[in-house]
Specification:
Elements (H helix, E strand, L loop, with lengths): L3 E2 L2 H4 L8 E6 L2 H10 L5 E9 L8 E11 L2 E8 H7 L2 E6 L3 H6 L3 H13 L6 H7 L26 H11 L13 H6 L8 E4 L17
Parallel strand pairs: 1-7
Antiparallel strand pairs: 2-3, 2-6, 3-4, 4-5, 6-7
Helix pairs in contact: 5-7
């Protein structure tokens, strides 16, 4: 499936909390993640929506919360999505959370509280687990599947997809999972999204292979 091309000005008003933003970055570390996971997805974040205080017009802005290096800090932080779209080089996609899941499974209050707690605590980026999660090839080898290339769930630090997966786990979207083993492309392949996904930036020949096609791995 090819992504629908959309301008952020149009997408902005349609986005909702829990929607995923996927990146195909061009940095050296991004290329390592893509190479290790056999994909073109290097990073993910998740949408928060914030209404302006003391404003009766209903105006809002979309924020993205992610575990990344932003403004000199490597870890969990939130920022204006519009600013991140301008800053990041490469492909950027919007993956809308499925309506049925949002209405029947998603506890938005728990979702917000969990993510804001990580942001307030300035939880740091977890590079070792990020690299270990990307080594999925070793999970298929029975003699070493519980050691090399396998993380135990641990939320003392977060890498990008671990943070989003943990928020989904806490808020009821996924049930029990090992969030520390979830790679960016894993998250994009879970069948929790609407049928269509959208490209906000980058080379429009790029696609998310097997988007929204796989059951969540427990």
């Amino acid at each position: 499936m090819k992504a629908i091309q959309i301008d952020y000005k149009e997408a902005r008003k349609l986005m909702q909390p829990g929607d995923v933003i996927a990146f195909g970055g061009k940095t050296f570390f991004s290329e390592i993640i893509k190479l290790a996971t056999f994909s073109n997805i290097s990073h993910v974040g998740v949408i928060l929506q914030t209404h302006l205080r003391d404003d009766s017009t209903g105006r809002f802005f979309n924020k993205i919360i992610e575990s990344a290096t932003i403004n000199g800090f490597s870890g969990v932080s939130d920022s204006r999505l519009s600013e991140r779209l301008n800053e990041v080089e490469g492909e950027i996609w919007w993956l809308p959370l499925k309506k049925e899941i949002r209405e029947k499974q998603f506890d938005q209050e728990i979702f917000y509280n969990f993510l804001f707690d990580q942001d307030d605590a300035r939880v740091e980026y977890d590079l070792p687990q990020a690299l270990m999660s990307a080594m999925d090839i070793f999970d298929k080898l029975p003699l070493i599947s519980n050691s090399l290339g396998h993380n135990k769930e641990d939320f003392k630090k977060f890498f990008c997809s671990e943070l989003v997966a943990a928020a989904f786990e806490k808020s009821g979207i996924t049930g029990d999972i090992n969030a520390s083993e979830v790679t960016p492309i894993d998250l994009c392949r879970w069948n929790i999204y609407e049928d269509n996904y959208y490209q906000l930036k980058g080379d429009n020949s790029q696609i998310i292979k097997d988007y929204n096609s796989q059951k969540i791995s427990k």
